[in-house]
Amino acid sequence: MTADLFAALASPVRREITSLLLDGPRPVNDLAAHFSMSRPSVSEHLKVLRDAGLVSERRHGRQRLYRLEAAPLRELSQWLSPYERFWREKLADLRELLDEEDL
Amino acid sequence: MTADLFAALASPVRREITSLLLDGPRPVNDLAAHFSMSRPSVSEHLKVLRDAGLVSERRHGRQRLYRLEAAPLRELSQWLSPYERFWREKLADLRELLDEEDL
DNA sequence: TTGACGCGTAGGAAGAACCCTACGTATTGT
DNA sequence: ACAATACGTAGGGTTCTTCCTACGCGTCAA
Q1: Which of A31, A58, B50, B101 is the most buried (most CB within 10 A)?
Q2: Measured between alpha carbons, how far is B13 from B24 in angstroms, rounded to an integer?
Q3: Interatomic CA distance for residues B56 and B21, integer angstroms
């Protein structure tokens, strides 16, 4: 597991950024417009996302386009899978309980 | 999305605890034995997990058994699903590219 | 009832996170 | 060449996190 993937996603601002990037790459000003904080602060959030590999940067003239990257999210899904098994067992237990109730 | 679910999972110690709890409920001392930190610190981590709903507590004599809870993990899976669609598209694009290469 | 056990919480130190403004750098339009 | 645009980074204040030790409370065993 990448060290600070969860830490990167722990911030609501950064989750909102990743959500915005689902619609495609965007420049920083465009992203910053969605928040009530200074543009440099958004830049710092982008740095955290970049360090976690969640986002990549491509220069385009004087803009920098940030693009969502899939790999860390796949890792997250893999991290989750043992727990997925866990909660499916819980659901199965519940179903069993309900079946007994039907007797 | 529960406010601090990601924050709760951002700590390696807390992820290790949830992983340990996959095998079933455990008392605090049992959990603390897996870490090179003081038992009260582990208690504080458990409080964070409890506040995030990831863990529940059941008193049993003078022990407190901590149990993994499935609900927040299901939420996490749901949060991930739009991104899952996203990375599947990426894989589809890649496959298409490889197909063109075959011409 | 007295002592040991299992645990939570208070208080505090050290470091990290988060936000700001000020400034530097590269690129574009005139 | 010059001003404006788009952005990153430095420096700094404030608050959160994470760990510690000290202590208090409930439970069990003798």
Answers
A1: A31
A2: 17
A3: 11
